[in-house]
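Readers of this paper often ask what the protein records in our data store actually look like. An entry from our holdings is shown next, in its original layout:
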Amino acid sequence: MAKKKILANSNIELANAQIIKDFGDVVRTGNQLFEDIKDRKLLPISPAIDYAIGGGIQEGSLVQLAGKPKSGKTTTAIQFAANCQKEENGSRPIIYFDVEARVGTNQLEGIEGLDRDKIHFIIPRDGVLAAEDDFRIMEHYIKNVKNCVVIIDSVSTMASRDELDYKFDKQFRNPVMKMMSSFTKKIAHVLPQQRAVVISINHIIADSNPHTRTSTMVDGGNKLKYAANYILHITHNRPWQEGDDIVGQEVHWKVVTSHIGGLPNTQVLSYLRYGKGLDWRKELIDQCCEIPPLIERSGAWYYINFIKDEDEDRGPSCQGYKKCIDYLNENNLWEELKSKHKEIFA
């Protein structure tokens, strides 16, 4: 029995050696793969979304963001880009395909921390890029620029050369979804090798199929569902008020899937503040209020317990959310709070 086991091990080692000789370093053990995946950095979107998806977007991932018009998809994508530009997240190059040609000054000056000089927009100065061109450009960046973040806004708006040339009185079947399927196959292994991230923005539209039970569907075909590591859908929005003022939108997300675990099929609430982007401070405070040793909320009062002395029952008190924010700002406590939050919520 022992001889058979030695022979089997010898056979697999010989076979592996021959495969590596013929095809390169393509064989690894499950433990080697596990360690490689664990080594991939998690990149943040916002505290609430990060918690729901298991800690953030992992390097080497394909992500689908879907929602109805003006629901916060573009703002969320650019906020993610701004986060990825930070030194602690790798100072990553951002390549943005503005297919809809709708990115405006609101997004470019209204996202806190965005370095406009280091986000590269793919927009033709003359004419229109066909989908075939877009996919070739994307593939070039992914294969040649390590750690890059590629954002497609949106796949639903991409048009092939034939569609750009066709006559309006003719019937036409758009091949872009087939191209997207081929594109995902071509980059499937390249993304983790390059530690790159691709964000695909898609529209949610009415489902006109009488044989389905759903009233809406994601435009862009079904292939992306199988290829995506993360799928996040915006289900609805509500005005976000502070007192009598509308300061932004409450964006309600559904986590359809996350390949690192998280809380799939759950709802998560993020806050989009006009002129700032996703309000990570609001989300962080809301999460910390669930852990009284960090921040305790009682009615309108907030108690900053993570800095209290051992002989005190409660930390410094602030009446109202605004004063809580002011206290944390004035005393430079955000980094300490983020660190303690990460220890608990990780």
Q: What stands out?
A: The mean pLDDT is 92. The longest strand covers residues 245-258.
